[in-house]
Every structure is written in structure tokens, then in C-alpha cells.
Design brief:
The complex is a heterodimer of chains A (299) and B (444). By secondary structure, chain A is mainly alpha-helical. Helix content of chain A is 53%, strand content 5%. The longest helix of chain A is centred in the N-terminal third of the chain and has 26 residues, at 15-40. Chain A is elongated and about 70 Å long. Chain B is extended and about 95 Å long. In chain B, strands 1, 2, 3, 4, 5, 6, 7, 8, 9, 10, 11 and 12 form a twelve-stranded mixed β-sheet that branches. The longest helix of chain B has 61 residues, at 2-62. Chain B has four domains: 11-206; 215-279, Nuclear Transport Factor 2, Chain: A, CATH 3.10.450; 281-359, Roll (Nuclear Transport Factor 2, Chain: A), CATH 3.10.450; 373-435, Nuclear Transport Factor 2, Chain: A, CATH 3.10.450. Chain B contains ten helices and 13 strands. Classes of the chains: A mainly alpha (299), B alpha+beta (444). Strand 1 (175-177) of chain A pairs antiparallel with strand 13 of chain B.
Chain lengths: 299, 444
Amino acid sequence: MRELKLTMNLRSTSKRKTAALLMVLISIVCLSIGITSNSNNVQAFSPQVIQHGAVGEDVIELQARLKHIGFFHGKVDGVFGWSTYWALRNFQYEFGMEIDGMAGAKTKEKLAKATKYNEAETKKQMYKTPQKQQGQSQTNQNNQGQQKQQQTNQNTQNKQQPQKQQQPKETETTAVNVPQGFSQNDIKLMANAVYGEARGEPYIGKVAVAAVILNRVKSDTFPNTISGVIFEPRAFTAVADGQIWLEPDDEAERAVLDAVNGTDPTGEAIYYFNPDTATSPWIWSRQQVKKIGKHIFSI
Amino acid sequence: MIRTSIIAVLAVGLIGVGYWGYKEHEDKSSLLIHAENNYQRSFHELSYHMDMLHDNIGTSLAMNSDGKLSPQFVDIWKLTSQANGNVSELPLSLLPFQKTKKFLADIGDFTYDTAVRNLDDDPLSDGEIETLEKLYKQSGELKDELRSVQHQTLEDNLEWMDVEMALASEGDSDDTTLIDGFKTVENKADGFGEEYAGSSFGQSTDRQPAELEGEWKNKREIEQYTKKLFSLNKDTNLQITKSGEGATIPMFSVSYEDGKDVYMDITQKGAHPVNIMVNRELKDQKLSLNDGLLKAEKYLKSFDYKDMKAIQSQQFDNVGVFTFAYTKDDIRYMPDLVKIKVALDNGEVIAFNGKEYLTNHQERETKEPSLTLDEAKDIINDELHVEEDHLAVINNDVDEEVLTYELYGTKNDETYRVYINAENGDEEKVEKLSGKETNFDAEL
């Protein structure tokens, strides 16, 4: 309407006509630039290249976008697994891009253009609790206002909750990566055993104990499961005296993860013992590989 | 008055304590009986399974039709597995019983291999029948021994809890009948291995590790190498120990502390690092998994590992784990693996594992596939939709390197990896790839 008025007024003076047209043109150009730059800026992804195995906010967005356009059929869970990988490759194929299964700058731009991402809706489906469902994007002012309101509301009810909200943790995803062939529970059980057996040992000594458990699983003469090896009667003192049920620390869990990922500092040992307390003469007859911390490892 | 009331109170107290003590004792003995019963069940099942094993091997010898033989071998294989399961439920860990377990496992391997073989085309050889005859005799000996121990146990009410106590308290109280019985069984099994010299029975298929390049190094040279590798001061204190005689590859273990714990296993021959581990507190994630991959690639190059290609990447909290395979002429050599772990707070490589590469890598001639990719795709299950393919060399069931087509296929949103032999079209290996699981720890 305003533009219409403008041109109407300007009609009287033909000299200004061209200037006015120019202005209109410029404003249109400006507007359209504004729009496109806006659409480029729709908070699509962080600058990282997202690849197979990645975890986090960007992966949630990637999965949601691929789902929106019909390439991804699984649950949006924030872990870039095989289904996401195939979905992304098929997207790259359909849009005539290089098929590498990685979401780099170009792919992300194409995705942002071709799809929509409704963060609030996605998170509502992902999480059970309303706080999480709101998402962590701080860019939306409206959203922030809401959060603040909620915070003050909660302040009166519960003092601890808002503290949690003020420093939002890294995105919690609804799935996690696990090494092929292991579950989180296997790893937890091993961490318990390692913590009970090698609490006071150096880090490498903990990895070594975890590696022995895995070597036994592989061995013919021991049970074929992690739980079978750990709970074999009298195999581990920490199991016999109940120390296995202490809560393991992070270090024990990290050590187990290292062993599960293939690190074996023991050189394929299937026994270890503490030379100061070992009672069985038989254990000394085994061929020794090395000593780590207080334990001697042997085959 | 006071005296009588004190006496009354004390009497009541005494009765109370007595009752409590009695209760405690009862609880304890019921727990002991419960544990004992578990052991008894495993023990009696073990001797039953050994008996069955002996019978079944005997039956297989009396059989003539190959069609019946395969299921029979499957039964034997199952029995060996059950018997071994029973053994591992008994408190024998401190007692050497490995030979018997090994014997059972070997029977299992032998019968499994025979059971899955097509006996119509490839019937039992004379040598294999001879092996079976021997197994029949030997399993009979073990069975008899176990049955007699079992008889003694029932006769004298022997208890496994006593064995456990005896084994736990020093090794000198060896007079337990049960322990003696199991030792006799073990001694019998010990002699069995020799009878199979020259046959394929019970021979482990472990291959010799590939020859390492380079000269043998001494402690001093390793010390210098380590200091150069980690750019350490000359006076940094390194702990270096030589591996013992049980080591498959002779190595030095080097460790030092420098604000973080660093540990390295390095081969004595050629000074090739096998494991490197850095232990420190990890801070918040700053780098993406992809940044981590670039760091890992750079790190590999600095070690003179050439032609390595990332075949897998996974993020666990704030570390990235990357697997690389040696790749030449577009063929992935899956035995030649290197794993690298990168901390995503500052991009430092905190673990390196090159053992599989070092033990398997060698110069190989590039093989040409006789099958085309399309022929390979025709062989796999029709329901699998192939998404990605490579040529890959893998170790097959009998531990030989074979050239295969590595096909990644999807079915019902699950991903499978199928290896098709590129020479003869055999389906060498089929795996379901998972790699992720519901996050049980998350507060959602």
C-alpha cells in the first residue's frame, strides 16, 4: 500500500519517476536479500562436519530434517548410526551431490533449503519431561522469556531445579554409541569387576584387568560370556567378597571402554595375581608376560 | 525387689539374645545349604553330561547313514558345551582343570565342524573315524572317573562348601576326596593331547604373527626413541620393563608421568609402538568428531602408516574412536587394523592400538576378483538392499585371507554386512551391525 501511494504521489513529477522506480527496485532487492539471508540463517546446524558415529544437537537436527523429507525412517535419537548414514547418502544421491555420507557445508545448506526443522516439536517427541522438550536453543527470545517465567515459577516450588536449567548440560541424546557386540550393561558389569579388583592400581592396570576378562571370554577353557567369566566361582576375589558391588568410578569405566575397543596391555594374558597375597603354588607355574602395578599377568 | 527385677530383665535379655543367635545361625545354615545345593546340581549334571557325551560318541560310531550323523554331532557339540558350563559353575578355579576343559572344547570344535559339513559329498575320513574311536575311549575314562567321584560323594555326603574352604585356605589341605578325584580326571586328560599328534584334532589355528621390520633394540635405544617420540626432556624419568617369556611378541613397556599418565608397549624388534595410552582428566567437548578424525589421520601419517583409510568412527561422551584399515588398490585389508582414540576437548590422541596391523600386515599381491560385483549381489539374500560395496580382504573361518566383496545392505531399517568370496561366491560372513543402544542413563 505504501509503495502504491508513493508512486501515485510521484506521478505528478516525471523527473522523480525514475528515481522512485530505482528506490522501489532497491527496496525489493534489499527485501529479497533479507529474506534469503534470513533463510540461510535459520540456525541450521553448527559449522561442524557431521559424520557417522557423531552424537549431539546437530545429529538430532540432521535426523529430523532427513525424516521430514522422507529419507530417514528411524527414531530421532541424536546418534548418527547406520540408518542416518544411509538416509544421508540417499539424500546426497537424489540431490546430485557427492555421496560421502558426511554432512559438510554444502550438504547442510541443501538440507536447510529443502527441509524444515521444528526443534520444539522434535524434542517433544524425543523426551518425556517438559524441560527437555523445550530444547536448548537460546536464540529464540520468546523461548527464553518462557524459560525465565518457568524459572521464577519453579523458584518458589523447588530451589534446585532452576540451577540445573541455568547451565544446560550437553544435549542428552536418547541413544548412545556402543562398541559392536557389547551393551552398556556388559560394560557396567565389567567396570564393577575392574573397580572391585583393581581400585588402587594405575590406570593401565585397570585396562589390563578388563583385558584379561575379555581374553577369558575368547578362550576355549573359560565361559563364553562376560558375566560367565566374572561370576565363575573363585575366579575373582572381588566377586567372592562382594567388593564387585561397590559403585565404580569414571576411571574404571573408561578403562573398560579402552579394553573393549581393543587395547590389551597384557599381551593376551588370561591370569593375573598379586605375588604378595597369592596362595596357590600353581599360579606361579604359568608363563608370565609382565607386571603392571601390583599384578603379574600370565598366560 | 530390685534384685529380682534385674534378674528378670537379664533373663529376658538372655532369651532374646539366644533367640537372635539361633535365628542368625538358622539363616546362615540355610544360605550355606542353598549354595551347596547349587554346587551339587552342577556337579551331578556334569557327570551326567559326561556320561551322555560318551554314549553319544559311541552311537555316532555305530551309525551308518550320514543323514543321522549330522544331528548326532550337533548333540555331542551341545553336550560338550553344557559340560564345560557345569565345570565353570564349580569352585575349581584355583585347581588346575584346564586340560579337561580344553579336551571338551576340542571335541566340541571337531563335532561342530563335522556337523556343518555336507557329509554326503564329503563323508568322514578314516582318520576322523579313528579320532572318534579315540574320543570314545577317552571320554569313557573321564566318565568312569567322574562317576566314581560322584559315588563317593553320595556315599560319604561330601560337600563342595568344604572344597571351597579348603581351596581358599592355603593349598596344603589337599586331602579332600573331591579335589583328588578332579585331579585324577585332569591328569587323565593331560595325556590325551599327545595321542592326536599329526592329526588336525585340537590343533589351534593361531597363525604366527607377521615378521616385524627393523633391528632388535635395547633399553637405552627405546629410552631415546620414546623421548624423541613424545618430545620429552632429557632428564624425564622413564620406567622401562622388558616383557616376560609368556609374551607372544617381545616388547618393552614404557611409562612416565608428566601431568598425565603415559604408557606405551613397544616391540623389541624394530621399535614399533603397539599400544599408547594417555590417562588424564577430560574437559568439555570442543571439537567435532570430524575434527577428531582429521587429528587421527595426521597422527597416523606422523608414524609412517601409509594408505590407511578410516572405516569406522564412533563418539563416546567426549572421545572419538576411529578404526583404520590398510587400503591398497581400492581393496580394504580388514586384518590390518589400527585404532586411535582422540580426546575431543583439545584433539590430543589419547590411545593408539596398532597390534592387529603389526601382527598381520605384510606385502601382498593384489588379487583380481573372478566374480563381478553384480554376480556377488545376486548371491546375497534378496531382501537385502545393497547400499554400499567395497572389495575387502578378510580372514575366513579357517583363518585364511580371502578376497571378498564387502556389501552393506539394509532390511527393515537394520544394517547388515555381508562378505561374498570374490573367487567362488561363498558367503563368508554375515553380520548385523548395531553400534548404538537406548541411553539408559539419560534423564529424559
